[in-house]
């Protein structure tokens, strides 16, 4: 317990540094809308302290304390109004709660940080229980300083990690553990969508562990879906137009500089073409689905070889496919991947290389935006800023391809357990441990 307490203390220090990093952009003056000044936008790019939390204080009626979704909608030009935010409903409520007692973007950043910090500490605790000292990657990882309060991602990361924790540390039957994990993934869907992709590998794990247990697999799917529906239904009933607007905003989002994905950097000269944007609405999700299917299939081959379906590794690989191929790749998505560096035993070279590439991308993109806004030369031959950005974007993309393979070939850092037919956990001496190369 003392080691876990130290782990959480280190995480708290890192989270405090993450807040201090973003707070550099706040104040010292505030205009009539509570926006920091002077030169808020220029400072946020130049000093690499930009955050969506602070930036969205103005423009989504957050500063007016409007409850989200109920009275809003989306205009034909894609602009949201009436308190609608472009995130799923639980994140929208979290945003509203963070703004409730404040009247400046600085206060909003602080209150949002206080709301989200417990989720970051919970992730540290769960990862420590699952993987012991490797959880230091979360507690001391640079992404926690860069992105803990860049957006509202700590709660959704917590939901995904909690699902793994419940599956591997809760002393209950497979049916109860998998149902609880599915509910947590459903809550994650209502926060940021991406945990929903982990439902399929969890279904396959339950199906194989239960001896071709179709009912168990369907129970997982039903529990996750029911949770997502139950959370969303009240908002849909209270204001269908506003609720639907958040989904429509994301479906209509175009590939542009704000998406920061390989589709923009690889094809940015085409992004003004309507045909290209329409094609991206098909190509990007289509390729993501292919990557998901490939990961699940390789996981099945591994199950046939070892007797255990590697749902955590498959989930990690699916996330790599999502990050690589989705038309949006926001900087803070690294927080989604960081727990898998803890939970899956990939080589340290992969981890260090990815964190370096991510840091180069983060600093590079905001410094590049600063130079562009100031009219300074910002081409690839004009200095290291654009070069660092390209190293980050394409280095990260190449590493995601490699990590897709590495995750699927790796062991977890979690002590695995199997079930007897009645659903009772086997005693520790009866637990089996398989590896990709075990031949068993």
From TrEMBL:
Q: Which InterPro entries match?
A: GT87, UCP010361
Broad class of the protein's primary localization: membrane
The positions making up the signal sequence are 1-18
* Keyword set, alphabetical order: Cell membrane, Membrane, Signal, Transferase, Transmembrane, Transmembrane helix
Which residues span the membrane?
80-101, 108-127, 147-167, 179-204, 224-244, 282-303, 309-328, 348-369, 389-410
Residue ranges for the region (Disordered) are 419-440
- A Pfam family this protein belongs to? GT87
Topology in membrane: Multi-pass membrane protein
Question: Where found, per UniProt?
Answer: Cell membrane
Family, according to the entry, reads as follows: Belongs to the glycosyltransferase 87 family.
Name under which the protein is recorded? Glycosyltransferase 87 family protein
- The record lists the organism as Saccharopolyspora ipomoeae
């Amino acid at each position: 317990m003392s080691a876990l307490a130290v782990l959480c203390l280190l995480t708290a220090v890192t989270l405090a540094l993450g807040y201090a990093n973003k707070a550099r952009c706040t104040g010292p003056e505030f205009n009539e809308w509570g926006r920091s000044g002077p030169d808020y936008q220029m400072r946020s790019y130049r000093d690499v302290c930009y955050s969506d939390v602070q930036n969205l204080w103005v423009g989504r009626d957050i500063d007016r304390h409007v409850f989200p979704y109920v009275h809003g909608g989306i205009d034909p030009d894609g602009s949201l109004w009436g308190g609608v935010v472009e995130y799923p409903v639980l994140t929208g409520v979290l945003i509203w709660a963070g703004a409730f007692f404040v009247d400046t973007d600085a206060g909003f950043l602080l209150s949002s940080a206080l709301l989200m910090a417990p989720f970051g500490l919970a992730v540290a605790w769960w990862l420590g229980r699952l993987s012991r000292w490797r959880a230091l990657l979360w507690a001391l990882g640079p992404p926690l300083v860069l992105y803990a309060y860049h957006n509202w991602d700590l709660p959704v990361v917590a939901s995904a990690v909690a699902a793994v924790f419940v599956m591997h540390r809760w002393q209950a039957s497979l049916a109860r553990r998998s149902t609880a994990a599915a509910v947590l993934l459903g809550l994650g869907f209502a926060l940021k969508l991406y945990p929903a992709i982990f439902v399929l590998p969890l279904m396959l794990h339950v199906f194989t562990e239960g001896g071709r247990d179709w009912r168990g697999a369907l129970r997982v799917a039903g529990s996750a879906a029911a949770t997502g529906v139950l959370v969303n239904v009240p908002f849909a009933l209270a204001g269908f137009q506003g609720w639907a607007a958040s989904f429509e905003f994301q479906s209509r989002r175009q590939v542009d500089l704000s998406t920061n994905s390989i589709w923009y950097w690889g094809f940015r000269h085409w992004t003004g073409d309507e045909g290209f944007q329409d094609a991206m609405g098909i190509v990007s999700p289509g390729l993501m689905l292919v990557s998901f299917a490939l990961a699940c299939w390789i996981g099945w081959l591994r199950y046939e070889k070892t007797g255990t379906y590697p749902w955590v590794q498959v989930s990690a690989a699916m996330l790599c496919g999502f990050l690589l191929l989705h038309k949006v790749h926001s900087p803070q998505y690294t927080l989604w991947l960081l727990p898998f560096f803890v939970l899956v035993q990939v080589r340290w070279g992969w981890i260090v290389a990815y964190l370096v590439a991510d840091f180069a991308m983060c600093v590079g993109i905001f410094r590049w935006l600063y130079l562009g806004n100031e009219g300074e030369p910002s081409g690839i031959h004009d200095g290291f800023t654009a070069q660092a950005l390209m190293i980050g974007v394409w280095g990260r993309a190449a590493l995601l391809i490699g990590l897709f393979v590495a995750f699927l070939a790796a062991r977890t850092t979690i002590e695995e357990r199997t079930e007897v037919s009645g659903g009772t956990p086997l005693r520790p001496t009866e637990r089996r441990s398989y590896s990709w190369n075990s031949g068993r």
